Amino acid sequence: MGTVNLSKQHPEQYKLLAGLDASVAAALAAAELDPLLVELVKIRVSQLNGCAFCLRMHTRDAIAKGETADRLAVIAAWWESQYFSDQEKAALALAENVTELPVHDDHDTVDDALTAEQVSAVSWLVIVMNAWNRVAIRSHYPVAP
């Protein structure tokens, strides 16, 4: 069998995932997480999963929200740069931890940079982002210039 567009084949499940996404967005806002941090997490998860569709979308979203080219350029090696705040580093480490189970690296700790509410909200963000990546990759969403 060739490519199957999951959102068209099962639109109700797609709508449910979109609803979960909206609920997670509300939790992120309630946890007072910066919208740029949210986009950075979405980008990093999409890098880890190799999802070109989501990478392009969330990089564009981050730029529209004021993200810099320098930070976008080094996000794949965020732990080696001084571009990110402690809270952003904690969220990116958490994103990697949730995406790559189990993680065996030096940057998988959250420390005290995030509250329990923020850890939960970011964890749900990563879970939903992983789901979106899998829908886009499995459906072979086009990514052309």
UniProtKB/TrEMBL annotation:
Protein name (record): Carboxymuconolactone decarboxylase family protein
Pfam families with a match to the protein in the record: CMD
Gene3D superfamilies for the chain: AhpD-like
Source taxon at top rank: Bacteria
Any coiled-coil regions, as ranges: none
Ranges of residues in domain Carboxymuconolactone decarboxylase-like: 17-96
